[in-house]
Amino acid sequence: GVEVELMARPMAGIDLFGAFGYTHARFGDGTTSSGADVSGNELPFTPDFTVSFGAQVTREVTSQVSLYGRGDVTAYGAFHYDEANSASQEAYSLVNLRAGARGRLVFAEMWVRNAFDARYVPLAFAYQGLAPSGFVGEPGRPRTFGISLGLAF
Q: pLDDT of 103-134, one tens digit each?
């Protein structure tokens, strides 16, 4: 696999960032799992790619206070939940946003994670008989909102 990360500041107060990862993780010839040949199958929980990118804009209001806004997107390629590649999660992406004010010693911000409420199951395990699909999964976090306050010293 390979991973590339880039960060840039095209002008004061604007930060751009991004990353790309690619992997071709497969079981080697002669690999078995629970007695079944899984040679050539994709490794569980290993997407072929991950991509993230975003930007942050910061503006000084006074010499002591700055305002900022940030947005980022992370995309995950499809992946399988088991060695047999019998169940999988389709590719999905998550958008996160935040905006706030920062002083020398304090900050306050509002944020939203998974802004478009993407539905995904990042973790699932084979469990025959409990679920119709034969898998029990943990749903990904839904859209969440919050306010953070902080004090630095």
A: 999 999 999 999 999 999 999 998 887 777 88
Residue 98 in tokens: 């935040």
Backbone angles phi, psi at 144, to 5 degrees: -135, 145
> In what helix (H) or strand (E) does residue 149 lie, and over which residues does it extend?
strand 144-151
For residue 115, the model assigns a pLDDT of 98
How far apart are the C-alpha atoms of 85 and 20, rounded to whole Å?
A: 24
Q: How many CB atoms lie within 10 A of CB 146?
A: 10
Under 8 Å between Cβ of 69 and 98: yes
The encoded tokens of residue 9 equal 């500041």
The percent helix, strand, coil of the chain (3-state, each to 5) is 0, 55, 45
Q: What percent of the chain has pLDDT over 90?
A: 90
- C-alpha 5/C-alpha 83 separation (Å) is 30
